[in-house]
Predict the structure.
Amino acid sequence: ALPIYTTVSDTFFTVTALSEGEAYEFRVLAKNAAGVISSASESTGAVTCKDEYSPPKAELDSRLLADIVTIRAGSDLVLDASIGGKPEPKVFWSKGDKELELCEKISLQYTNKRALCIVKYCDRSDTGKYTLTVKNASGMKMVSVLVKVLDSPGPCEGKLNINRDRKS
């Protein structure tokens, strides 16, 4: 193979346009301001080019590991998890089988290390199973948390029967 020379003015360099599965060798030469070129460094030896893959990772915050997470109505539900994977995974929170979307009530923040969902001013309708899905070319990981919102009882529904029979 023919050598390829690239001028690098920094202490690092990223080699691009390599073919996966091909083997490459690398050496470094230095050239000073006077134009004097050093002898080549030792070869790295054959390096086979391959994409880095790691399976998706999802771990719920320790406060969410109980069988059922209980919160009071009117408070905020904070769902927090650490995530990872290569290539960078697609990440989303869902409730039941419906993906959660950003709105006034729901705040969603995703970084390459965290998935945060805040459900504001919870009421009984926010009770349910929340699932974090993390997926990439290496697979899929799902973690779930059951949430129960405690609220004061609603009004009675239906016909109310009062029995006045008193037996002593």
About this structure: The two ends are 105 Å apart (CA to CA). The chain has a mean pLDDT of 90. DSSP finds no helices and eleven strands in the chain.
